[in-house]
Amino acid sequence: MTVLFRTLKSCLALPRVAWAFPRAAGRALRSWGFPEGLEASKMELDIQCQEFDASKWKELVSTLNQHKTIRLDDCGLGVSHCEDLSSLLSTSQALTELNLSNNELGDSGVDVLCKGLLNPNCNLQKLWLRNCNLTKACCENLRSVLKSKSSLTELHLGDNSLGTLGGKALCQGLMDPNCQLQSLQLQYCELTKENIEALSSVLLTKSSLQTLNLSNNKLGDAAVKHLCQALLDGPCNLQSLQLESCDITHASCKDLSAVLSNKPSLIEFCIGENRIGDAGIAILCQGVQNPNCKIEKLWLWECNITAPGCKELAKVIGTKETLKEISLLGNALTDEGMEFLCQGLKDPKTKLESLWLRDCDLTAACCKSISSALSVNSVLKELQMSGNCIGDEGVIDICEGVRSPNCKLESLWLGQSSLTAVCCEALAKVIVEKPSLLELDVSYSHIGDEGVFKLCEAVKNPNCNLKYLILYDTYWTSQADKELKALEGLKPEFQVVT
Ligand SMILES: *[C@@H]1O[C@H](CO)[C@@H](O)[C@H](O)[C@H]1NC(C)=O
Ligand SMILES: *[C@@H]1O[C@H](CO)[C@@H](O)[C@H](O)[C@H]1NC(C)=O
Ligand SMILES: *[C@@H]1O[C@H](CO)[C@@H](O)[C@H](O)[C@H]1NC(C)=O
Ligand SMILES: *[C@@H]1O[C@H](CO)[C@@H](O)[C@H](O)[C@H]1NC(C)=O
Q1: pLDDT of the chain along its 498 residues, tens only?
Q2: pTM of the model
Q3: How far apart are the C-alpha atoms of 55 and 277, rounded to whole Å?
Q4: Is the CB of 101 under 6 A from ligand 1?
Q5: What are the two backbone dihedrals, phi and then psi, of residue 467, each rounded to the nearest 5 degrees?
Q6: For residue 159, what are the contacts with CB-CB under 8 A and spacing of at least 6?
Q7: 74, 196, 200, 314: which could join 340 in a potential S-S bond, CB 3.0 to 4.6 Å?
Q8: Where are the beta strands (DSSP E) in 226-267?
């Protein structure tokens, strides 16, 4: 997906930035010590992976009251830093977003922060404390914050071992009429089904929550049943529900399906890494088919879906006009399943823009069907096919579909597909002839110098609009490397990502 790719790119770009400066955006550099552009930089501070000695920290703190949003991600912060940030919170009315993820603040650090948060001057709206080594001990104070701070709309507490008792304290805070929280992220928090009972009471009485991430907690079917009942009976208009890796089986699918068909507010639903299987997916699809369901994004990765499940999904893909994104990553769909999905893609009513089929046990045998689907489909923008053994033959077929005038594909991912130089002529034609194409991924392939030369030649063509040619773990000699480097200057918009 585009988002994931951007993240990857910025991570890889990190080591190139001098260690002496904050790693992230240029605006962060300017905000401490670069006078030019200071006006524009006042609002945001964005620093990642930078540790501060005492004097540098002092210097930074003296500038913090200018900012509306502060991100100090993975900066080695602890309790003493929290003292300064707490004073900031109690004095700076401008500060609305604070991101302290990936710092070992611990419970005592957060207790100190809460003092600032409880100050009437504090107007904070969004707080990130992901992976901060927190336990149930800090949840008492967070409960008080939830109860008294109605400005707070987003709270990210993922990757902290809050456990059943921590989760309970938070729910007590959420129950308070003052609490107006809209987004709550509790993935990897060691929550249990007891927490879901408390959360269900919240959902039965309050309507503010819009985004709820409960991924990677061992909830099980009984808890999910509770949750669904509360969503159905309560006033809540949830928009995004994340239940990845929550020990859910097909037994929960009837309840989830009822939520899908009765909650038009729900536009994003993720149930990845739960082995709901084909039987489960058939039930979910019934919910999606209901005209009341307005789902846009369905994340169904590693759900043990095979060909029969694809038959149901094809109907949804073909007819659900709100559905824009679907991920089937890590399901053994096989070529047989792909044949069904292609039927859905060919339906003139399909509105699907993004299809993830990474690691789906596909071979070259289904690529003619993909090609013929692409040649009649004008809405698909992103096709993620990496990790399937489709080989040169498969890619050549797919390229034929992409070259059809109807096809408006922008991103094509073909990494780890057993490719050699043989398919590069077809890829080169696509690069030249398809002005919509912006991203092409040929990572983990054996295209070698010969392949690289062909792709470079195509990129040089004035008709090529490609922005990213992605070539992780692909080998070539220094001669091919020169060709690739030469491209970077030639087209300002274009980048080779390695
Ligand atoms: C806060 O930090 C987390 C962890 O690095 C990151 O995923 C998130 O996007 C950040 N949010 C903002 C608004 O900076
Ligand atoms: C996390 O916090 C606990 C106390 O709650 C502490 O013992 C531990 O050293 C901290 N750090 C890590 C990496 O666990
Ligand atoms: C929910 O949590 C999972 C697990 O950490 C994460 O992968 C996903 O991006 C989160 N989703 C949202 C919308 O926050
Ligand atoms: C996956 O689904 C099949 C039926 O479609 C079932 O026989 C199998 O047990 C399931 N595997 C797991 C690990 O749940």
Answers
A1: 222 222 222 223 222 222 222 222 222 322 333 333 334 455 889 999 988 999 999 999 998 988 999 999 999 999 999 999 999 999 998 999 999 999 999 999 999 999 999 999 999 999 999 999 999 999 999 999 999 999 999 999 999 999 999 999 999 999 999 999 999 999 999 999 999 999 999 999 999 999 999 999 999 999 999 999 999 999 999 999 999 999 999 999 999 999 999 999 999 999 999 999 999 999 999 999 999 999 999 999 999 999 999 999 999 999 999 999 999 999 999 999 999 999 999 999 999 999 999 999 999 999 999 999 999 999 999 999 999 999 999 999 999 999 999 999 999 999 999 999 999 999 999 999 999 999 999 999 999 999 999 999 999 999 999 999 999 999 999 999 999 998 888 888 899 998
A2: 0.89
A3: 57
A4: yes
A5: -105, -35
A6: 130, 131, 187, 188, 189
A7: 314
A8: 240-242
Would you say the CB of residue 71 lies under 6 angstroms from ligand 1?
yes
| End-to-end Cα distance, the chain | 17
What is the number of the ligand closest to the CA of 107?
Answer: 2
- What is the C-alpha separation between 386 and 331, in angstroms, rounded? 13
Q: Which of 126, 244, 245, 327 to mutate to test the pocket of ligand 3 (most atoms within 8 A of CB)?
A: 244
Which residue's CA lies nearest to atom 1 of ligand 2? 133
The residue nearest atom 11 of ligand 1, judged by CA position, is 99
**Residue with CA at minimum distance from ligand 3 atom 14:** 213
Token pair for residue 467? 């922005």
Going through 179-324 in order, the beta strands assigned E by DSSP cover: 183-185, 211-213, 240-242, 268-270, 297-299
Counting ligand 3 atoms within 8 A of each CB, the residue from 215, 216, 217 with the most, and so the one to mutate, is 215
300 within 8 A of 326, measured Cβ to Cβ: yes
Atom of ligand 1 nearest to the CA of 99: 1
Q: How far apart are CA 76 and CA 58, in angstroms?
A: 15
Q: Which residue has the tokens 């490397």?
A: 481
Atom 11 (ligand 2): residue with closest C-alpha?
A: 133
Dig out the tokens for 161 from the structure: 């071992």
Atom of ligand 4 at shortest range from CA of 279: 5
- Å from CA of 206 to ligand 3 middle: 23
CA of 364 to the centre of ligand 3 (A): 33
- DSSP symbol at 352: -
